[in-house]
Amino acid sequence: MTAGRRPTAFGDPDLLTGRLFFALAVPNRVKAPLEAALPALGGLLPGARFSSPAGWHLTLAFLGQVRAEFGGDVVAVGEAAAAAAPPRLKLNLDGAGGFPSDGRAHVLWAGIGGDLEGLNTLATELADASREAGLRTDDRAFHAHLTLARLGEARKLTPEALDRVAEAAAAAPPWESTTLHCYRSTMTNQGTRYTIVRSFRLGGGEPDS
User: What is the pTM of this model?
Assistant: First the structure.
Protein backbone atom coordinates (compact mmCIF):
# COMPACT_ATOMS: atom_id res chain seq x y z
CA MET A 1 0.00 0.00 0.00
CA THR A 2 2.88 2.35 0.77
CA ALA A 3 4.38 2.11 -2.71
CA GLY A 4 1.06 2.96 -4.31
CA ARG A 5 0.10 5.71 -1.87
CA ARG A 6 -3.13 7.42 -2.83
CA PRO A 7 -3.27 11.21 -2.87
CA THR A 8 -5.32 12.85 -0.13
CA ALA A 9 -8.56 14.00 -1.73
CA PHE A 10 -9.42 16.90 0.58
CA GLY A 11 -9.56 20.65 0.14
CA ASP A 12 -7.72 21.29 3.42
CA PRO A 13 -4.16 19.93 2.97
CA ASP A 14 -3.66 19.80 6.76
CA LEU A 15 -6.86 17.88 7.50
CA LEU A 16 -5.20 14.47 7.83
CA THR A 17 -1.91 15.54 9.36
CA GLY A 18 -0.79 15.85 12.95
CA ARG A 19 -1.35 13.45 15.85
CA LEU A 20 -4.07 11.10 14.57
CA PHE A 21 -5.86 8.10 15.99
CA PHE A 22 -8.88 5.91 15.23
CA ALA A 23 -11.61 5.76 17.87
CA LEU A 24 -15.31 5.32 18.55
CA ALA A 25 -17.30 8.18 20.02
CA VAL A 26 -19.12 7.71 23.34
CA PRO A 27 -22.55 9.39 23.63
CA ASN A 28 -22.99 12.09 26.27
CA ARG A 29 -25.76 10.12 27.99
CA VAL A 30 -23.28 7.26 28.52
CA LYS A 31 -20.61 9.56 29.91
CA ALA A 32 -23.00 11.40 32.24
CA PRO A 33 -22.72 9.09 35.33
CA LEU A 34 -18.91 9.15 35.12
CA GLU A 35 -18.92 12.92 34.73
CA ALA A 36 -21.11 13.23 37.82
CA ALA A 37 -18.59 11.15 39.79
CA LEU A 38 -15.60 13.41 38.99
CA PRO A 39 -15.89 15.73 42.03
CA ALA A 40 -15.85 12.76 44.41
CA LEU A 41 -12.99 11.14 42.50
CA GLY A 42 -11.00 14.34 42.74
CA GLY A 43 -11.22 14.11 46.52
CA LEU A 44 -10.20 10.47 46.49
CA LEU A 45 -7.26 11.00 44.11
CA PRO A 46 -5.58 14.30 45.00
CA GLY A 47 -3.21 15.54 42.34
CA ALA A 48 -4.76 13.45 39.57
CA ARG A 49 -5.26 15.20 36.23
CA PHE A 50 -8.77 14.38 35.04
CA SER A 51 -9.47 14.64 31.34
CA SER A 52 -12.46 16.60 30.11
CA PRO A 53 -15.53 14.42 29.48
CA ALA A 54 -15.83 16.11 26.09
CA GLY A 55 -12.61 14.34 25.13
CA TRP A 56 -13.57 10.85 26.32
CA HIS A 57 -13.54 8.37 23.44
CA LEU A 58 -12.76 4.72 22.86
CA THR A 59 -9.35 4.66 21.19
CA LEU A 60 -8.72 1.71 18.85
CA ALA A 61 -5.42 2.58 17.13
CA PHE A 62 -3.02 5.45 17.75
CA LEU A 63 -1.06 6.60 14.69
CA GLY A 64 1.11 9.29 16.25
CA GLN A 65 2.37 12.18 14.12
CA VAL A 66 1.19 11.67 10.53
CA ARG A 67 2.69 13.57 7.59
CA ALA A 68 0.48 14.94 4.81
CA GLU A 69 1.68 12.40 2.25
CA PHE A 70 0.22 9.58 4.36
CA GLY A 71 -3.28 11.09 4.42
CA GLY A 72 -4.56 8.85 1.64
CA ASP A 73 -3.30 5.79 3.51
CA VAL A 74 -5.12 6.87 6.68
CA VAL A 75 -8.36 7.05 4.69
CA ALA A 76 -7.75 3.69 3.01
CA VAL A 77 -7.05 1.99 6.36
CA GLY A 78 -10.18 3.44 7.95
CA GLU A 79 -12.41 2.59 5.01
CA ALA A 80 -11.23 -1.03 4.78
CA ALA A 81 -11.39 -1.75 8.52
CA ALA A 82 -14.81 -0.15 8.92
CA ALA A 83 -16.24 -1.95 5.88
CA ALA A 84 -15.09 -5.32 7.29
CA ALA A 85 -16.69 -4.66 10.68
CA PRO A 86 -20.27 -5.49 11.67
CA PRO A 87 -22.63 -2.55 11.09
CA ARG A 88 -23.27 -2.13 14.83
CA LEU A 89 -21.20 -2.76 17.93
CA LYS A 90 -23.28 -3.05 21.09
CA LEU A 91 -21.18 -1.72 23.97
CA ASN A 92 -21.44 -0.67 27.60
CA LEU A 93 -19.22 0.67 30.35
CA ASP A 94 -18.04 -2.06 32.69
CA GLY A 95 -15.71 -1.91 35.68
CA ALA A 96 -12.67 0.17 36.56
CA GLY A 97 -8.93 -0.19 36.88
CA GLY A 98 -5.52 1.33 36.42
CA PHE A 99 -2.60 1.02 34.03
CA PRO A 100 -0.28 -0.79 34.30
CA SER A 101 -1.96 -2.22 37.40
CA ASP A 102 -4.29 -1.13 40.19
CA GLY A 103 -1.39 -1.33 42.64
CA ARG A 104 0.99 0.90 40.65
CA ALA A 105 -1.27 2.98 38.44
CA HIS A 106 -0.36 5.91 36.24
CA VAL A 107 -3.81 5.98 34.64
CA LEU A 108 -7.37 5.54 35.94
CA TRP A 109 -9.80 4.02 33.47
CA ALA A 110 -13.38 2.84 33.05
CA GLY A 111 -13.73 -0.51 31.31
CA ILE A 112 -15.79 -1.53 28.29
CA GLY A 113 -18.13 -4.51 27.95
CA GLY A 114 -20.47 -5.82 25.29
CA ASP A 115 -19.34 -6.94 21.85
CA LEU A 116 -15.67 -7.19 22.74
CA GLU A 117 -14.98 -9.75 20.02
CA GLY A 118 -16.13 -7.34 17.33
CA LEU A 119 -14.33 -4.45 19.01
CA ASN A 120 -11.06 -6.36 19.33
CA THR A 121 -11.29 -7.50 15.71
CA LEU A 122 -11.78 -3.91 14.53
CA ALA A 123 -8.82 -2.70 16.62
CA THR A 124 -6.62 -5.51 15.25
CA GLU A 125 -7.64 -4.77 11.65
CA LEU A 126 -6.77 -1.10 12.12
CA ALA A 127 -3.41 -1.84 13.71
CA ASP A 128 -2.40 -4.44 11.11
CA ALA A 129 -3.47 -2.31 8.13
CA SER A 130 -1.77 0.77 9.57
CA ARG A 131 1.53 -1.07 9.93
CA GLU A 132 1.23 -2.42 6.39
CA ALA A 133 0.72 1.13 5.13
CA GLY A 134 3.82 2.35 6.95
CA LEU A 135 1.87 4.21 9.62
CA ARG A 136 3.06 4.12 13.21
CA THR A 137 0.90 2.21 15.71
CA ASP A 138 1.12 1.40 19.40
CA ASP A 139 2.57 -2.08 19.89
CA ARG A 140 0.85 -2.62 23.23
CA ALA A 141 -2.00 -5.13 23.36
CA PHE A 142 -5.41 -3.52 22.88
CA HIS A 143 -7.41 -3.07 26.06
CA ALA A 144 -10.78 -1.36 25.59
CA HIS A 145 -11.21 1.51 28.05
CA LEU A 146 -11.93 5.18 28.60
CA THR A 147 -9.04 7.11 30.15
CA LEU A 148 -10.43 9.22 32.99
CA ALA A 149 -7.32 10.56 34.73
CA ARG A 150 -3.54 10.55 34.66
CA LEU A 151 -1.97 10.15 38.06
CA GLY A 152 1.64 11.22 37.52
CA GLU A 153 3.82 9.07 39.75
CA ALA A 154 2.62 5.50 40.16
CA ARG A 155 0.25 5.03 43.08
CA LYS A 156 -2.11 2.41 44.44
CA LEU A 157 -5.71 3.05 43.49
CA THR A 158 -7.93 2.96 46.56
CA PRO A 159 -10.92 0.59 46.66
CA GLU A 160 -13.12 3.66 47.17
CA ALA A 161 -11.94 5.24 43.91
CA LEU A 162 -12.31 2.02 41.93
CA ASP A 163 -15.75 1.39 43.39
CA ARG A 164 -16.89 4.91 42.53
CA VAL A 165 -15.87 4.47 38.89
CA ALA A 166 -17.38 0.96 38.69
CA GLU A 167 -20.67 2.19 40.16
CA ALA A 168 -20.84 5.06 37.67
CA ALA A 169 -20.03 2.67 34.80
CA ALA A 170 -22.81 0.32 35.91
CA ALA A 171 -25.27 3.24 35.97
CA ALA A 172 -24.48 4.24 32.38
CA PRO A 173 -26.81 3.00 29.63
CA PRO A 174 -25.54 0.73 26.84
CA TRP A 175 -25.07 2.15 23.38
CA GLU A 176 -24.51 1.11 19.78
CA SER A 177 -21.53 2.31 17.77
CA THR A 178 -22.11 2.55 14.03
CA THR A 179 -19.29 4.87 12.97
CA LEU A 180 -15.50 4.77 13.21
CA HIS A 181 -13.78 8.16 13.48
CA CYS A 182 -10.30 9.42 12.79
CA TYR A 183 -9.46 12.08 15.36
CA ARG A 184 -6.70 14.66 15.49
CA SER A 185 -5.39 15.70 18.92
CA THR A 186 -3.95 19.19 19.38
CA MET A 187 -2.27 20.50 22.51
CA THR A 188 -3.52 23.91 23.66
CA ASN A 189 -3.08 26.10 26.74
CA GLN A 190 -6.45 24.78 27.92
CA GLY A 191 -5.50 21.14 27.44
CA THR A 192 -5.84 18.68 24.58
CA ARG A 193 -8.44 19.40 21.90
CA TYR A 194 -9.86 16.50 19.87
CA THR A 195 -11.26 17.03 16.37
CA ILE A 196 -12.95 14.44 14.15
CA VAL A 197 -11.30 14.75 10.74
CA ARG A 198 -12.85 11.75 8.97
CA SER A 199 -15.66 9.26 9.66
CA PHE A 200 -16.31 5.75 8.31
CA ARG A 201 -19.60 3.87 8.56
CA LEU A 202 -19.19 0.40 10.10
CA GLY A 203 -20.20 -2.27 7.62
CA GLY A 204 -19.55 0.13 4.73
CA GLY A 205 -21.69 2.90 3.29
CA GLU A 206 -21.82 6.60 4.06
CA PRO A 207 -21.36 7.74 7.70
CA ASP A 208 -24.18 9.52 9.49
CA SER A 209 -24.08 13.26 8.98
Answer: 0.89
